[in-house]
Design a protein that fits this description.
With about 250 residues, the protein is mainly alpha-helical. The protein has helices spanning about 10-20, 30-40, 55-70, 80-95, 110-120, 120-125, 130-135, 145-155, 165-170, 170-180, 180-185, 185-205, 210-225, 235-250; strands at about 5, 10, 45, 50. Helices cover about 65% and strands about 5% of the residues. A two-stranded parallel sheet has the order 1-4. Strands 2-3 form a two-stranded antiparallel sheet. The protein is globular and about 60 Å long. The termini are far apart. The relative contact order is 0.10.
Length: about 250
């Protein structure tokens, strides 16, 4: 059995302290490093269940994020497409990093530490003047949201189009899936929606997909109240989701 690597955790009070110290512009990397020394009591590790990560391991994740961001124009580029490209590439990388292949990556406070302390320069580039929710752990955390996308939409090692959904879905489509707990918690359903979104966008064009996606999600959530979609076979689940998208397209005409 492989050992679990325990990462540092930053409490909500710690995020507040970081933001209060940094102001509206958000913290710089040097400020965040200083924060570790000044507010060390707000950073913790799980008391048991694994081995505390050493400094090299802790910095391995932000180092990789910084490499991806640099390839996408960090720190100078202000291009929205460059940031979107970072999202796509980082989602795939974070999802496959062995360091994050444990329950630690499910912890909001671990991602708060990543975003507010050790990779805050990348977080500030991705979201200039980041809001509290981008540094706090959760579905809107600048990095946690990408890990969730990669882990959920991964079609499996060896698949010829392993990251197709990560690369194809629009930001609006990602938000519609991953900011709804009943959808995001069901990986099979999330992938079925991603498949239907991709096929529909190829058929009608991406321009009308925002309205179609929103209508589809309402239909799917309503259907899930009547029939527990998690118990359907892959084929039946795909059929249910595809039907919702076809109906949404018809309603959008």
């Amino acid at each position: 059995m492989s050992r679990v690597i325990l990462f540092p955790r930053l409490s909500p009070l710690g995020v507040s302290a970081v933001m209060e110290k940094a102001g509206a512009a958000g913290p710089t990397l040097s400020e965040s490093v200083g924060f570790i020394n000044e507010y060390g009591s707000l950073i913790s590790f799980a008391p048991s269940g694994g081995t505390r990560a050493d400094s090299k391991t802790i910095m391995g994740v932000p180092k990789r994020l910084r490499e991806i961001a640099t390839a996408c124009g960090f720190p100078d580029s202000k291009d929205a497409e460059a940031r979107a490209r970072f999202d796509r590439q980082a989602a795939a990388v974070l999802a496959t990093m062995p360091e994050l292949d444990s329950g630690e990556a499910l912890r909001d406070d671990v991602w708060a530490f990543m975003a507010a302390v050790v990779a805050t320069d990348v977080a500030g580039w991705r979201y200039p003047s980041p809001s509290r929710e981008r540094l706090d752990g959760g579905v809107r955390n600048v990095f946690q949201r990408l890990w969730m996308r990669g882990r959920t939409l991964d079609r499996g090692e060896g698949h010829p189009e392993r990251w197709k959904f990560v690369e194809a879905l629009s930001e609006d489509a990602m938000v519609q899936i991953f900011e709804r707990a009943s959808i995001a918690a069901n990986a099979r359903l999330a992938r079925a929606i991603a498949e239907a979104w991709t096929e529909t966008a190829e058929r009608i064009g991406r321009g009308g997909m925002e309205d179609v996606m929103r209508r589809s999600m309402k239909l799917i959530r309503l259907r899930n109240e009547i029939v527990d979609l998690s118990f359907l076979s892959d084929a039946d689940l795909a059929a249910e989701v595809a039907s919702a998208f076809r109906t949404a397209v018809d309603l959008s005409k």
